[in-house]
Amino acid sequence: MIRPYRPDDLDELKRITAVCFTSVSIDRNIEDKLGVIGGHDWQWRKLRHIDNDVSGDHARHVFVWQTPEAEIAGYITGRTDDDSKIGWIPNLAVDPAHQGSGIGRQLINHLLQHFRDEGMECAKIETLAQNEIGATFYPAIGFQEVARQVHYVMRLGDPEE
Ligand SMILES: CC(C)(COP(=O)(O)OP(=O)(O)OC[C@H]1O[C@@H](n2cnc3c(N)ncnc32)[C@H](O)[C@@H]1OP(=O)(O)O)[C@@H](O)C(=O)NCCC(=O)NCCS
């Protein structure tokens, strides 16, 4: 079943995030190119996004999928914007042990209804070109591609070198 996020879910959300985003994360791509930065690995960076997603009022737009055994199988995070009327989905992940059984689809549909209830007129989600599931899944739900963005990164070494 889907239920609202509670603060004591955070460790589980982070565990699922660290396992799920190994091959589909900008933070991981950066580490693959440039190595560890600032003494922190890519999981540390990615998990900060989850802290942000559940901070303050954002937490109201976060939902988890709980199994009958009370385990968390997946989660979705959201943001609303009363001025733009565009709801944003920063993160969605389903534990690999539970993937492929419709949980991701249910979580998105739940958040889309929540956005409607909150007065949003559109929903926005971003995915990496390397994420094959995202490329088929989101259009199948009704999302239309509107833009492609390229991320660049460089080390700030000594300019004299
Ligand atoms: C993306 C993700 C959340 C989907 O969750 P899920 O519970 O496995 O998804 P569902 O079972 O609801 O399947 C939804 C759709 O995803 C696609 N899909 C799911 N598993 C797939 C697979 N192994 N290969 C290809 N497409 C797949 C299908 O289009 C499926 O639709 P269908 O049921 O009509 O075939 C999950 O795979 C995940 O956590 N991935 C890693 C993190 C990630 O990519 N997050 C999204 C970032 S934009």
Identify the strand order in the major beta sheet. Answer: 1-2-3-4-5
What is the CATH C-level name? Alpha Beta
CATH architecture descriptor: 3-Layer(aba) Sandwich
The Cα radius of gyration reads 17 Å
Biggest beta sheet attributes: 5 strands, mixed
Distance between the termini: 57 Å
For the secondary structure, the number of strands is 5
β-strand percent reads 15-25%
The small molecules bound here are:
coenzyme A
Task: Output the structural class.
Answer: alpha+beta
Share of helix, binned: 25-40%
**What ranges have pLDDT less than 50 throughout 5 or more consecutive residues?**
none
Descriptive tags:
single chain; 161 residues; alpha+beta; Aminopeptidase; globular
Describe this structure as you would to a colleague:
This protein has 161 residues and is an alpha+beta fold. The protein has one domain (2-141): 3-Layer(aba) Sandwich (Aminopeptidase), CATH 3.40.630. It has five helices and five strands; from the N terminus they run E-H-H-H-E-E-E-H-E-H. Helix 1 (10-20) crosses helix 3 (42-53) and helix 2 (26-34) packs antiparallel against helix 3. The longest helix is centred in the last third of the chain and has 15 residues, at 103-117. The protein binds coenzyme A. Coenzyme A binds next to strand 4, helix 4 and helix 5.
Protein topology:
Layout: E1 2-4, H1 10-20, H2 26-34, H3 42-53, E2 63-66, E3 72-79, E4 86-94, H4 103-117, E5 122-125, H5 132-141
Parallel strand pairs: 4-5
Antiparallel strand pairs: 1-2, 2-3, 3-4
